[in-house]
Amino acid sequence: MSYQETDSSELNSRLLGVVYQVNAATGFQEALRVLVEQAAALLPCDGTAAMWLAGDHLEVLAVHGTTAPLQGLTLPAGQIGNSRAALDSGRPALVDDTSLDPAWQEVPGEEKVRTWLGVPLIAGEWTLGLLEWTALEPGAFHAEHTHLAAEAARHAAPILYRAQLLDDACRRVREHEAPHARAASASLDPGAELQPVVREASDFAEARHAFVFLLAESSSRLQCVAATGEQREQLLKASLRGDGTLGGWRVPIARASEGLNAGKTDREVMLGLGIEHTLILPLRVSGEQVGMLGVGEHRRGGSFGRDAMRLMTHLASQASLIVERIYQQRPPSEPYDYETVFRASPLGIAVLSVTGDVLFCNPVLEGLLSRANRSLVGRNLADLLAGGDGQHVVRALEEVAISGSRRQVDARARSEQGDHRYLRFSLSPASIARGGGDSLVAIVEDVTPLKILERERVEHLRQLREKHAQLQDLDQLKSRFVSNVSHELRTPLAVIKLYATLARKGRPEKQQHYLQTIEQETHRLETMVENILDLTRMDRHALRVNPELVEPEEIIGQILQVYQETAQKRAIELRNHVRGPLPSIWADKNHLIQMLTNLVDNALKYTPRGGQVWVAARELDSDPAGAGTLEIAVGDTGVGIPQEEQQQVFERFYRGSNNAPGTTGTGLGLAIVRELMVQHGGSVTLKSREGEGSIFALEFPLYDGQELEEEDED
Prior knowledge:
Layout: H1 8-24, H2 28-42, E1 47-54, E2 57-65, E3 74-76, H3 83-89, E4 93-95, E5 115-123, E6 126-135, H4 143-177, H5 190-205, E7 207-215, E8 222-228, H6 232-237, E9 239-240, H7 253-256, H8 266-272, E10 278-285, E11 288-298, H9 306-328, H10 338-344, E12 348-352, E13 358-361, H11 363-368, H12 381-384, H13 389-403, E14 407-414, E15 420-431, E16 440-446, H14 448-505, H15 511-539, E17 548-550, H16 552-569, E18 573-576, E19 585-587, H17 589-605, E20 612-620, E21 629-636, H18 669-679, E22 683-689, E23 693-701, H19 705-713
Parallel strand pairs: 18-20
Antiparallel strand pairs: 1-2, 1-6, 2-3, 4-5, 5-6, 7-8, 7-11, 8-9, 10-11, 12-13, 12-16, 14-15, 15-16, 17-19, 20-21, 21-23, 22-23
Helix pairs in contact: 1-2, 1-4, 1-14, 2-4, 5-9, 14-15, 15-18, 16-17, 17-18
């Protein structure tokens, strides 16, 4: 496949989606499946896998894509990529090119992996396992991918931890309801009942050894209960871990985690008894693996064939029925003390009636409902949750009771501070007989951070849409700019070309006029090009400002003198309203001339014949701590600017709708004025009324001599 770099905003949006989907999953296994599927879409990968830590081994519990051959394997952590480094450090580990890594180990059956990324799953102080991404091409993941993977694992790990705790709580409830499951009978001897099956297995498979191992009642290990062969006595004393090294059989994860690393591996135990070749079949009761039937060492040497497998399959079914009968005849055990377990749980747990009455709840739930040290027993959820959310949960309880399936429902609880806390109720069909009626179990967790994350996701998407719209607007403005600039450039060039021809062929007495016109149009071109270059320099922070003490009335007088002829030709009165001496200002002289020129030129463009354009200046009052401000204003009696456009006139490339006929421009002049005033530590303001005219005011801060000297020293 071809890997392309993905936009960071899109990746962040995907991350929020991953967390949302995993949290919405029902049950631990479902959450793992959703996680690897969502993780595969998060990065440009070929495969993903979720692995659970059991001692020094990792059990592959969920896979997606090319990692499918890993499903169900239990491997040493050091054999899976660079997982050992990731688990020890608690940080992501990346192998950019496995062919260049001398420590890389191939996993049998898996496609050739070239890029490997592993991120530890950590919930609080517990390292749960590893989330991995693989690619068939080298260099598939860059730094942003690694960061995104780490964020996905950081958010997903607590969700997985809670899902496993929920499944464990429900399992304990089921064990309370069915105490006979996976337990040996006191009235029937499993060894005596299964010994005939063992003998038949030895005869039918032509094996030197045959044996049955069952899950011990008080531990997570497999204990031999029946055996034949020379090593019968040694086998009856043996116990196994169910670590997957014999025929792929494994103890279920919920039980294997208790002591998977204790002692020798199952294969090592068998080899110690001289048993190298085995054929193993699982024994199941109610769909759950409770033991195994096995034979070892064919009497004629070599491995066991298909005929042996077929006969052993039949015997395994027979043995499973015997084990099930033994379990059913076990006398009832002592009542399960589920309340002790629930009180110790880090999650909120409640036993509820179908109508929503609280029959029992642990201290964690009391805290979530802001009623710590206050009993909730006898209260109804409708009274404990905000608004109509309690009734919503009650309806969900009724659906669970009828359908027998799990449900998740979110509800709001009002804190003592008055704000809302979002709680997620995971409702289980597992019931507990209490108080003469049936009840349901609810696991409750605070999902307020997830709700905040979801709101952030929505806000992020809104911002992306706004940025997209802004980019579209900018693209339109640039298109108009190119069109305007093209026209503005062509006009003076055409005039220059015309008058150059006239100067060469026309009347000699007009040559001076021709040359003056050429000079004017050339100056016009220079101004346009310089405006564009100025904006480019501003964007690159390369525009140089060389401040000096400037006498503003001199600059104003010069500009008005330059434009007098233009004003007369257009029948516009150009007036100087500056009265009295003005204070000197600290400014770049050339830039000041440029700003006032842009403003005066604009005023003349948009003022009709017979109108007025004027320039005024005054010192504004300031607070006692300031040194004052000098305002230089350029006003006109022109067409004015509509109210809805006044916030846009300082934007680049913008040209207003009230353009006089024949008026042209690039829409850069006012943008340059604003940027230059920022460089001078001042500002530009606009007052305008449509049909009456406009006033643009430049406000320069005033400094005394001492302040200027201090700035120079800096």
